[in-house]
Amino acid sequence: MQLPYRKPGKFSQTPFDPLITQDKFYDLSRRLDKLKKQQPKAATEVAHLAELGDFSENMEYQQAKGRLRWINNQILILERQLTEAEIISSNGKKDIVEIGATVTITDGKKLKSYQILGSTETNPEQGIISHISPIGAALLDHKVGDNITVIIGKTNRQYTITQIS
């Protein structure tokens, strides 16, 4: 049975963002090592199941081949991420917002803190936003006390930077 072809969504071809923290770099390296250790076993399993004959009705072979293909694809993706990675390092400047900084802002009612990182590490629920998000992009290169305008959809929101760490 052939699966229907679906046109990729608008977020399927997002540009690659090489900015990552040192911790994320180590995490990706560990994942790559783990996958490289799984690869020979998966290849051996495919070869063993191929010896059983009829490929069209050998479901175990198809599944093993799919697992091996997934492992190989993940290895290629991780190797690319690691070779093109740019490690985010704090220059020690606490007077201007840059990538890697934690910024506290207020809208006059509530204080919010955000850490600005690369797009692969974002987690808005934990206050980690991307440098290319509307708020992250608006905060970059500003100082404590600066007022910024963030355009989200059709709304303009005003914030004041209260702290950079």
Describe the structure.
It is elongated, with a radius of gyration of 23 Å. The longest helix has 29 residues. The termini are far apart. With 165 residues, it is α/β, with parallel strands linked by helices. The relative contact order is 0.14. The chain contains three helices and seven strands; from the N terminus they run E-H-H-E-E-E-E-H-E-E. Strands 5-4-3-7-6 form a five-stranded mixed sheet. The chain folds into two domains: 69 residues, Transcription elongation factor, GreA/GreB, N-terminal domain (Helix Hairpins), CATH 1.10.287.180; 63 residues, Chitinase A, domain 3, CATH 3.10.50.30.
Oligomer: single chain
CATH homologous superfamily assignment of the largest domain:
Transcription elongation factor, GreA/GreB, N-terminal domain
- Compute the number of structural domains: 2
Strand numbers in spatial order across the main sheet:
5-4-3-7-6
Discrete helix count: 3
What class would the helix/strand composition place it in?
Answer: alpha/beta
Named CATH architecture of the largest domain: Orthogonal Bundle
Topology, number of strands: 7
Gist of the model:
The protein is of the alpha/beta class. The chain contains three helices and seven strands; from the N terminus they run E-H-H-E-E-E-E-H-E-E. The mean pLDDT is 88.
